[in-house]
Amino acid sequence: MRLANLAGRAVLLVDGGAVDVAELTDGKYGPAPRDVLDRWTQFRAEVTGVEGADRIPYATGDLGAPVPEPRQVFAVGLNYADHVAAARVPTPEFPMIFTKFPSSLGGPATPVALPSAVVDYEAELVAVIGREASRVSESEAWSHVAGLTVGQDLSERSVQGRGPAPQYSMGKSFAGFSPTGPAVVTLDEIGDRDDLALRGWIGDEVLQESRTKELIRSVPALIAYISGICRLFAGDLIFTGSPAGVGMGRKPQRFLRPGETLMTEIEGLGRLEIPLVDGSL
């Protein structure tokens, strides 16, 4: 199952188009994606097929963030060994957690206005919580996941670096700085949920390439850690971290430029195609 957001309505992406969830269920679920996720366990038990449902044609650019109104958005820094090595810092003893504010969410092809010349990219696997989680163990954690999606953790590095302490959440929460999509893909549609190829590129230039098995802390480990401190709710997002290759760490540094299209793909989950435009004042 691939849950997406088409013009603010929850849809399932299938061969031949999109199926409107509210119409499919005679109004029991939807029309908003949040309504489906708030009752995700019940929805998954009751909605098992789309036979005979009308298909709505769509393009990637018609889709919004598949989870447009999460209660909480968590993100993880320095969670790939090669990223830690490139940053020349010790592996964090505990997961390095910050938040990205929900107003920064965008869809899989939503244009992003670059506010400066130092906006960076970070291709990431994003886990979507499907039911409340509080102090869950790693062995239980996957059962609390609705599905996975593709994300980018964009960062305005000058704002992020403002002292006396780093301003991660502010530097990473400009409008459109958290593109996600195209859909929340349920685990039964994913081959090996612990080992997915991840890639980010612009034109012919490959920026990042890795596999999610290289995560220092896996999705279950992150859910166990975060839920031991914060209660997680259905629809919450966890950006799980980015591999090496970010622009700030390159020599010379390589930041995003207006007129480019930032591509991000994860095996089995789909692709983001983010147009970049000039948003400087």
Briefly say what this structure is.
The chain is α+β, with helices and mostly antiparallel strands.
The major beta sheet can be summarized as: 11 strands, mixed
**CATH fold-level assignment of the largest domain:** Fumarylacetoacetate hydrolase, domain 2
Q: From N to C, what is the helix and strand string?
A: EEEHHHEEHEEEEEHEEHHEEEHEEE
Q: Helix amount, in percent?
A: 10-25%
Q: How would you state the average pLDDT, rounded? A: 96
Organism: Mangrovihabitans endophyticus
Protein name: Fumarylacetoacetate hydrolase
InterPro entries: FAH, Fumarylacetoacetase-like_C, Fumarylacetoacetase_C_sf
Domain Fumarylacetoacetase-like C-terminal: 73-274
Question: What would your notes on this structure say?
Answer:
The chain has 281 residues and is α+β, with helices and mostly antiparallel strands. It has 2 domains: 2-58, no CATH class; 64-278, Fumarylacetoacetase-like, C-terminal domain (Fumarylacetoacetate hydrolase, domain 2). It contains 8 helices and 18 strands. The strands form 3 sheets. Strands 1, 2, 3, 4, 5, 6, 7, 10, 11, 13 and 16 form an 11-stranded mixed β-sheet that branches. It is globular, with a radius of gyration of 18 Å.
